[in-house]
Write a structure and sequence with these properties.
This protein is about 35% helix and about 20% strand. The chain is an alpha/beta fold and about 280 residues long. The longest helix has 21 residues, at about 1-20. The structure holds Deoxyfructosylglutamine (SNW).
């Protein structure tokens, strides 16, 4: 009846307009159970220079531990099409929150602060934050950071940690790892504060040294998604659990982080209780 269809049509129009102007991804529906920008397709915001977590190879293709682990998880969810796009780290969570991407993947630590704007999958990595330096910089440890210049990538946990703990240090913010490391190599800064595995990779490449490795186990990395997508989050967590249980996580960890201590909580359940 007319009196009922008109308000319906108006409501639909209003909803469409609000969705359009807020830029929010579509809500979950029968054809799109996870509420993706386009069903059957995952658009992923990442960074191109966080080797070996997420980086672009010589052909511009995204690769690394987080990229391969996420792609495996997506396939377990029945999604074959996964596209990674590189942003500055500081741009990832805002872009995921406002629906420009379905997921953020880049060793993104789960913190209460970040959970105010996005949701996270369960954790899949827990490691260290590293102060990387030149051997001639005078920075030997956390104490000798005082009166030195320390580079951080804007918006990272390293940025927050440095502000909270390195009161005597000059903090210099960069948009990405590569520009921060270039500043270290040309003496513009005395050290760079970044994730442990990336530090290791730059240390090998440029003969740099670790001055400090600070545990960040309380902020394990997770996949970031927009809030209020319970089916999407549950499917991600189920696939993550399966990839840990069948040894895929372990295989990728050994492939990308050879020689690094392996957090036991992500191994198959049987391996966690064994003595070895
Ligand atoms: O908190 C750690 C976690 O324990 C693991 O070592 C992986 O890295 C972290 O998630 C921290 N990562 C930084 C952050 O979340 C930087 C991420 C990046 O540069 N892409 O801010």
């Amino acid at each position: 009846m007319k009196s009922q269809t008109l308000p319906h049509a108006l409501a639909a129009l209003l909803f469409a307009a609000v969705t359009l102007f807020s830029g929010a991804a579509p809500a979950a529906s029968h054809d799109n159970p996870y509420g993706l920008i386009e069903p059957g397709h995952l658009r992923v915001a990442s960074v191109g220079d966080a080797k070996p977590y997420t980086f672009t190879d010589a052909n511009g293709k995204f690769t690394g531990f987080d990229i391969e682990f996420f792609t495996d998880v997506a396939h377990r969810m029945g999604i074959q099409q996964v596209d990674f796009i590189g942003l500055d780290f500081a741009g990832i969570l805002p872009a995921v929150a406002n629906g420009q991407y379905d997921v953020g993947v880049s060793a993104i630590g789960i913190t209460p602060e970040r959970e105010k704007t996005v949701d996270f999958s369960s954790g899949y990595l827990a490691g260290y934050l590293t102060v990387l330096t030149r051997s001639d910089s005078g920075v030997k440890n956390v104490d000798s950071l005082a009166k030195h210049r320390l580079a951080v990538v804007q918006g990272t946990l390293q940025d927050n940690y440095a502000v909270a703990h390195f009161k005597q240090t000059d903090i210099v913010r960069f948009p990405d790892n590569n520009t921060a490391i270039a500043a270290l190599n040309n003496d513009t800064v005395d050290a760079v504060f970044l994730d442990y595995e990336s530090a290791k990779s730059y240390a090998d490449r440029y003969k740099l040294v670790h001055a400090a490795d600070i545990p960040s186990f309380d902020a394990p990395a997770g996949f970031a998604i927009a809030k209020d997508k319970p089916a999407f989050k549950a499917a991600l967590n189920k696939a993550i659990k399966a990839a840990m249980e069948d040894g895929t996580w372990k295989r990728l960890y050994i492939k990308w982080f050879p020689g690094s201590p392996m957090p036991k909580q992500y191994l198959p359940a049987a391996a966690q209780t064994s003595q070895s």
